[in-house]
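Query structure, 1163 tokens:
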């Protein structure tokens, strides 16, 4: 069967594949096709300028439009009916009828799909007004088809033609999702029989699998509609702001492995850390669908995924929030209204819970009373703090919550099953009322601003609205199941759980579908499988999925990454990042999958062997040493080993495993441990206390002013145990933090380190060793000095260490210029992924798929240095966020929340100039960024720039380290010095050149010099090494010739004298090939035996090669060993009368060796 390549996806591609099979052509679908991405690439647009799909690649050129492709494929076998089935043969009239029917389906039936089919699939919103007309048109088409097929089996002639195949294929979506018997096919039995005949054909079965006719009302609540309805309700009816889901990888929140709740991105508000000028701080109401992962850490559902029908590691959380705006009445009322009036759920199936109170906290009678306005009292249930009191941590915001539960069965009293882990009575919505702050002593204090934080599981509410008893039976997961089956060729998913799932296939389906979603979103947001932290969690998840596919579904190696296009197509409209990065996600997964695949089979075999050995001894416990070996050698996370043990009816000796892991765990912990000193942190409790004192945020405008002390007043004093009025009595060296009314110190943020310096007062000096900012309050941290007492209200004078800042500022400004230069050289897809600016260096992380080549790095470095030599003015000014965002070429960090107004920093143009015409093309040629850091006033102050390192730190993430000023000059000077040495070395030769080349290589490898210069110098040393090798090769050639010539001359002389043997030392560098050639030739002549000696001076080796023809009675091996005995030599041989060996020694040992050899030959 011939093979051709087709680009695209979905029903149109499948239709072409069926026609191809009829015509003897296998259509291979292009891998990783992502709609909206692949079909916009230059490669694709060269095939189809319209960007539509599918496109078929042929030897003559591309063909697009699915029906045109089908006609082309059918004609391939037009004149070969004895081969594949010819779909287009017949008279010209019959061919015309075929085309007529194909055109008819295009004009009559296909236009109704957007109204009747696409809403069912979740592709489009339902349009009730258009449905009657669409149904009438479809019924008319079916009626005409029925009339035609009543008296015939096929549409044209007496056989299946292209018309039958194309029309039946075009109707598959309608058949499975729309054409119910009652409304459509009962009236057209001939059409139904015709469709089922075609769908049973092997060509159809190979592509579509078995089709099942739609027998129920189409899904009225596809997943997309469920999500959109939630957001639209709160945006349009309740005036909320739809906030884009934050990254599922919380790069800026080290307390979280993954975003595990919708409230994560609003933590700065709840903790009192939001910048007062930011849009976040001004927000009152918000809603969204937040991407969440619960795998690892405190919230971990990984072990439960697959075992039931409702646990997931990746899920969406539908949420609405109030920040000091509405509270309990509105939150409860609107939740009830959305569920019952908008989603249409039966209120008789709803149960509400509330906090019953405890010794410290009163019962939430307010929530109870509101609920009893909507539900009977027996369905409003009290629960304790475990279920109905929410806390962010040991201290901080907290409060009672109310949960809404739904009874899937109904018509009963299910109150006893609420919070009882019953799969049919499930929690669907949790509404948290943040009205307290948990103090350090455990007491509760009422918050001045009370918030609402709600979360409803998207997958759960969708299953309820679609009347499914399992989240996995919804259209959120079924397309992924179809893709899994297509890749693995396993049986279809049947939804069995626990003991009923005897072969574990359904469990595997759930695990794989869940895990591909988790990994796709995590990688899209910047994480990737690795060895520690969240990256290790992802590696565990991937290996878990690969193992389930391999063992339970018989999946081929490399199957898992091929599910990414399905996830991208399914979720890309809502979360475009997973579609945009589909190719990168798939590449990362393929690399990981391939790596694990190399050890998977061996690891499984090792486990099975260990399990069998334990069982043979009557044990049901897998040795912890084996579990450790599986982790250490085969890459099996221990939870994967536990799953395999569970499948075998066994457990793992975890205590022994933990002991084996102690060293690795200790190393991991050591990397996370903090210093022993007590730290001060500005968090919710601290900022709340400061605000309660009536203190205004710190005026920090002076941080942009240089070389000027600033007088200010101490407004608050913070210690590890709380706030005090005076430092009297504090231990010397203990951590103290001062909040001032004004400051010139820069607090650590935005990648720039904090300022240091001193606060001076009449009583002494307070050294500032750290500066933090939260909610606008700047905390100056330092050790308590001896003999100094500070009090609230004291006047202090702040003196920043400007010499240190003068080292930091140029690094920060050049980071901006570097960002611009990278964009200029590598293209606009470069995005900042992190930075660090301190007094020693600048570090810049950015997105890029591959290593930056040397030529590009040189261009980047030159652009930065050009900006320095051009002496460009550096301008900064606050501007409204809206106006600033309109600047052409502006660079901002993805996911960063900026204040309004925002500070804009531009290199080479004034902010006023830029804002006067923000869309001007010129601005794209400058560095313009949002930044609140400190900068130099002119690029010339940076002196010089040296790009020291360019390296990969993660898949698709590169890192550059650079220096400015004296550090750059030092690096460049060292490179110049090394370049001079490389140039000088080129004049050397022989051993001197070889020695110098080796020394230079080591010096260059260890040198802190510009990366481009380092590569150039390495290239220079490589040329020197080649020069040495060429010289050695030339010398070796000469040596070889001399060895052969002198050996043959000695043999000829000995033969002429009638001697049976000879010994010869050739005083040239040893050449083993030459020695072998010479001895071989002499032995072949058969006249005399020879012992040939040479010296390798570089290695201090004396080499002896002996050769004895059959006519001479000397043991060649014994001769060689006897000759090398004085130098402790060894060797071997004997085959063909030849032997060779070597010992330690130079020319001074040759005489002794030859004497020993002579004695042996004479004996």
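Result returned for the query:
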């Amino acid at each position: 069967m011939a093979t051709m390549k087709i680009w695209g996806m979905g029903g149109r591609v499948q239709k072409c594949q069926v026609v191809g099979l009829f015509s003897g052509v296998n259509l291979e679908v292009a891998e990783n096709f992502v709609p909206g991405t692949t079909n916009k690439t230059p490669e694709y647009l060269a095939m189809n300028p319209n960007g539509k799909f599918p496109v078929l690649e042929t030897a003559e050129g591309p063909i697009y439009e699915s029906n045109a492709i089908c006609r082309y494929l059918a004609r391939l076998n037009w004149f070969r009916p004895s081969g594949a089935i010819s779909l287009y043969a017949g008279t010209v009239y019959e061919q015309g009828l075929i085309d007529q029917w194909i055109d008819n389906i295009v004009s009559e039936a296909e236009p109704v799909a957007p109204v009747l089919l696409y809403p069912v699939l979740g592709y489009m919103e339902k349009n009730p007004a258009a449905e009657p007309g669409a149904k009438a048109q479809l019924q008319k088409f079916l009626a005409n088809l029925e009339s035609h097929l009543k008296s015939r089996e096929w549409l044209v002639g007496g056989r299946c033609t292209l018309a039958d195949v194309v029309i039946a294929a075009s109707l598959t979506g309608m058949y499975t999702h729309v054409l119910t018997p009652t409304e459509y096919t009962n009236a057209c039995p001939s059409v139904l029989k015709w469709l089922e005949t075609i769908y049973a054909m092997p060509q159809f079965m190979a592509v579509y699998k078995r089709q099942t006719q739609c027998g129920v009302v189409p899904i009225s609540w596809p997943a997309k509609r469920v999500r959109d309805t939630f957001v639209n309700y709160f945006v349009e009816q309740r005036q909320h702001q739809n906030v884009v889901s934050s990254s599922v990888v919380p790069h800026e929140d080290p307390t979280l492995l993954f975003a595990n709740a919708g409230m994560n991105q609003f933590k700065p508000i709840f903790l009192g850390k939001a910048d007062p000028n930011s849009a976040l701080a001004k927000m009152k109401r918000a809603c969204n669908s937040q991407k969440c992962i619960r795998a690892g850490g405190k919230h971990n559902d990984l072990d439960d995924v697959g075992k039931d029908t409702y646990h997931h590691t990746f899920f969406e959380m539908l949420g609405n929030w109030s920040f000091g705006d509405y509270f309990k009445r509105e939150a409860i009322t609107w939740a009830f209204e959305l569920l019952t009036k908008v989603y249409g759920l039966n209120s008789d199936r709803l149960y509400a819970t509330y906090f019953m109170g405890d010794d410290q906290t009163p019962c939430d009678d307010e929530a109870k009373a509101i609920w009893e306005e909507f539900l009977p009292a027996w369905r409003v249930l009290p629960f304790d703090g475990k279920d109905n009191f929410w806390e962010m941590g040991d201290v901080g915001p907290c409060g009672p919550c109310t949960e809404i539960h739904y009874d899937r069965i109904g018509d009963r009293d299910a109150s006893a099953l609420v919070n009882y882990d019953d799969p049919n009575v499930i929690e669907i919505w949790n509404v948290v009322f943040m009205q307290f702050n948990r103090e350090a002593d455990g007491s509760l204090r009422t918050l001045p601003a009370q918030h609402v934080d709600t979360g409803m599981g998207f997958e759960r509410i969708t299953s309820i609205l679609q009347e499914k008893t399992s989240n996995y039976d919804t259209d959120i997961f079924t397309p992924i199941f179809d893709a899994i089956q297509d890749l693995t060729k396993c049986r279809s998913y049947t939804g069995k759980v626990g003991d009923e799932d005897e072969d574990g296939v359904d469990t595997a389906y759930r695990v794989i579908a869940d895990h591909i979603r988790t990994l796709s979103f995590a990688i899209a947001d910047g994480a990737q499988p690795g060895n520690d932290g969240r990256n290790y969690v992802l590696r565990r998840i991937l290996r878990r999925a690969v193992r389930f596919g391999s063992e339970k579904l018989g999946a081929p190696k490399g199957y898992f990454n091929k599910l990414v296009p399905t996830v991208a197509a399914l979720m890309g409209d809502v979360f475009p990042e997973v579609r945009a990065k589909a190719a990168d996600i798939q590449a990362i997964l393929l690399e990981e999958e391939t790596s694990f695949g190399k050890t998977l089979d061996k690891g499984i075999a090792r486990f099975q062997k260990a399990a069998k050995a334990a069982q043979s001894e009557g044990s049901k416990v897998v040795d912890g040493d084996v579990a450790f070996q599986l982790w250490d050698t085969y890459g099996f996370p221990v939870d994967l080993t536990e799953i395999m043990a569970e499948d075998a009816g066994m457990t793992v000796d975890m205590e022994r495993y933990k002991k084996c892991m102690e060293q690795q765990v200790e190393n991991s912990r050591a990397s996370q441990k903090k210093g022993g000193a007590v730290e001060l942190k500005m968090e919710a409790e601290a900022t709340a206390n400061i605000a309660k004192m009536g203190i205004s945020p710190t005026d920090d405008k002076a941080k942009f002013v240089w070389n000027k002390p600033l007088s200010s007043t101490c407004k608050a004093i913070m210690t590890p145990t709380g706030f005090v009025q005076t430092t009297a009595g504090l231990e010397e060296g203990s951590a103290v933090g001062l909040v001032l009314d004004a400051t010139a110190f820069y607090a650590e943020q935005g990648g720039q380190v904090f300022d240091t310096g001193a606060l001076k007062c009449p009583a002494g000096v307070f050294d500032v060793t750290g500066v933090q900012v939260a909610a606008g309050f700047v905390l100056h941290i330092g050790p308590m000095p001896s003999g100094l007492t500070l009090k609230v209200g004291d006047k202090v004078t702040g003196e920043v260490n400007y010499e240190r800042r003068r080292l930091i500022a140029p690094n920060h400004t050049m980071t901006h210029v570097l960002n611009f230069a990278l964009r200029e050289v590598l293209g606009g897809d470069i995005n900042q992924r992190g930075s660090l600016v301190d007094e020693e260096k600048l570090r810049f992380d950015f997105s890029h798929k591959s290593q930056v080549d040397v030529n590009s790095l040189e261009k980047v470095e030159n652009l930065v240095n050009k900006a320095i030599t051009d002496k460009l003015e550096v301008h900064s000014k606050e501007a409204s966020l809206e106006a600033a965002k309109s600047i052409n070429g502006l660079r901002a960090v993805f996911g960063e929340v900026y204040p309004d107004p925002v500070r804009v920093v531009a290199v080479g143009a004034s902010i006023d100039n830029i804002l006067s015409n923000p869309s001007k093309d010129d601005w794209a040629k400058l560095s313009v960024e949002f930044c609140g850091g400190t900068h130099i006033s002119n690029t010339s102050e940076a002196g010089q720039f040296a790009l020291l390192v360019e390296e990969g730190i993660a898949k698709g993430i590169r890192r550059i380290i650079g220096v400015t000023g004296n550090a750059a000059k030092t690096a460049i000077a060292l490179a110049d010095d090394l370049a001079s040495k490389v140039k000088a070395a080129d004049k050397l030769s022989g051993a001197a050149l070889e020695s110098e080349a080796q020394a230079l290589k080591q010096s260059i490898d260890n040198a802190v010099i510009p990366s481009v210069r380092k590569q150039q110098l390495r290239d220079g040393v490589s040329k020197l090494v080649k020069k040495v090798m060429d010289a050695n090769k030339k010398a070796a050639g000469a040596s070889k010739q001399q060895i052969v010539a002198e050996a043959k001359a000695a043999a000829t002389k000995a033969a002429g004298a009638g001697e049976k043997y000879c010994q010869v030392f050739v005083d040239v560098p040893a050449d083993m090939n030459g020695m072998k050639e010479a001895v071989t030739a002499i032995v072949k002549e058969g006249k005399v035996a020879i012992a040939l000696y040479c010296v390798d001076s570089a290695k201090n080796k004396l080499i002896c090669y002996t050769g004895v023809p059959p006519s001479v009675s000397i043991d060649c091996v014994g001769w060689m060993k006897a000759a090398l005995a004085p130098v402790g030599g060894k060797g071997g041989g004997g085959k063909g009368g030849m032997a060779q060996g070597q010992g330690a020694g130079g020319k001074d040992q040759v005489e002794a060796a030859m004497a020993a050899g002579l004695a042996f030959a004479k004996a």
